[in-house]
Amino acid sequence: MVNITLKELARELGVSTTLVSRVLNAPLRADGTPDCDISRDTARRVLELVDKYNYKPSRMAAGLRGGKRYMLGVITPDIANASFSATGRRIEELASADGYSIMFGSSDERPDRQLELIDHFIGQKVDGIIVTPCAGEDRSLQKVVDQGIPLVLINRNIPSLEGVGRVLQDYAGSTRAVVKHLLGNGYRRIEMISENMDVLSLKDRERSYCETMIANGLEPHIYKVESITQEIETRQAVRDALKKGTEALITPRIVLSINALLELMNAGARIPEDMAIVCHDDSPAWITHSPTITYVSQRSDDVGTLAYRLLCRMMKGELAEQIMVPPRLVLGGSTVKR
Amino acid sequence: MVNITLKELARELGVSTTLVSRVLNAPLRADGTPDCDISRDTARRVLELVDKYNYKPSRMAAGLRGGKRYMLGVITPDIANASFSATGRRIEELASADGYSIMFGSSDERPDRQLELIDHFIGQKVDGIIVTPCAGEDRSLQKVVDQGIPLVLINRNIPSLEGVGRVLQDYAGSTRAVVKHLLGNGYRRIEMISENMDVLSLKDRERSYCETMIANGLEPHIYKVESITQEIETRQAVRDALKKGTEALITPRIVLSINALLELMNAGARIPEDMAIVCHDDSPAWITHSPTITYVSQRSDDVGTLAYRLLCRMMKGELAEQIMVPPRLVLGGSTVKR
DNA sequence: GTGAAAGCGCTAACAA
DNA sequence: TTGTTAGCGCTTTCAC
Question: Min CA distance, B60 vs chain A (Å)?
């Protein structure tokens, strides 16, 4: 019941292993026949037997001798995180359709873990690597580049690295779009509830909110809540905002969104009459809620698609690019025109 | 900058490759020295040079010749699903500490996809496979067993398969515990809101709820909502329950839990005075909510730990076992004694 | 068009 | 205690 080998195939056909290997590795022509200097007839016979035995070449052996390894490495800080796993899922989907296997690893935001994983991947001689880097560890990534292994960075940038592909999100741009959307719908007293965290994406959103408000002659105001007391503070902020007559709230993290929403319901506030709200990140709750919620989607799966495609191009020898993905503003009933 | 090979190491040391290989593959003794018939001194010299060059053996080559491959395959229906990814995460964590690489795949509940992935894994000659099987495809799994590759089933059972390990959740047992907990706290009029789905875990919970109620001389009642109109129906069910004077609600799926909770808040019902509630599955919302929510944890990470450990034992030649994991009832303020 | 032969980096009999 | 030899399954010159 063990898999048949190329050698056995060759023997049964009465040809050399070389011949079989060549047929198998030739690029396919438009009409589906292999593009190599093998007689059409022999090639057909080979393919038929391959089919009959459902022969699958051993990637191990192929890789060893120097061929493609059909293996990719993917590292995220935490595969259990919804956004990262959505990205990873998409990569796996596309890659396995192309015959690649995926090795996943979670760095857990620990540089040593990331280093370990990279070493592992290099040891396995993967064809390419996609990684959401954790802070404070570019040496291992540099090593990847030095070894000539195509590398694509996702979501977080490391500017010092050269020759790597990047798929990054335009957080500032999306927040600008949010504010403009609210302004266009007649909202003026727009506030943000944000969290005191050292995360670039959040800082970008805060900064962009302030800039856009000021550029439109309005005064920005951010409630900054501490992570540890986030729920209580968020709820307090919502009550304050309601009392003050704030017209719209932007909540740039999903936990803030959820707690703000809960407090609005708790306070009996009507959305969007008493308070409009823009949430962040993807949740099935946004579209089942009534009214539906206007939110900024991270497009995690699109990021996966783009990263994989870019990696493919790089594996074919094309130059590394930087792709900016604009997060998508999904309009809902929580910010209708007033 | 490319990795050094065992052969080069051997040449630099003036010994044979065999010698080096033996040192490297020997099990470690308590004092950290390799347990083989190599002179302590030579062994030390080998290890020193390995260290100096940070040599990592090529798993490809090792695997090819018949040694361990240090590679595991993990298949879940959807790695983007929180529960599965938590399990996968834990497996990866433990496995990579032992030097294994993990190949992940999502079957997307599609038998053909599962078959493909399994073939891939067999082709890569993984040392072991952990899978949450999708319905309707046991042939590929049988193939795994036939090839002598240790296989562990997670969460879903396929009784016909022999010689496989299993880590299953005791859904009926946990629901029994839920009902008993409520009874013990003085609740009598206990109802369940469930969804009309063909999923074993849900059926188990419904059955167990009914049985336990009847066994205690109480009348069970289940609101069955359709998946497609789940939100509206769940909310309606909550309103009905409040009107009828129901004392406690069990919601055996996370979406039902969330919508029931939202409707309770919407209706201004006090928890647990007007209605106690037991939610299901893990969510950060349960512990940040006030009052905190009593819920049944799936223990996805524990399942991962147990599955990995079991697989390890099987890879060492031990017999396959079946492990039942009792889901954990986490007590919160939503079901306090009345 | 096709095949012989030499490896890729490693492990495992079998000798010494 | 150590080395010799022969592969694992495949790709790749180079020769025919």
Answer: 5
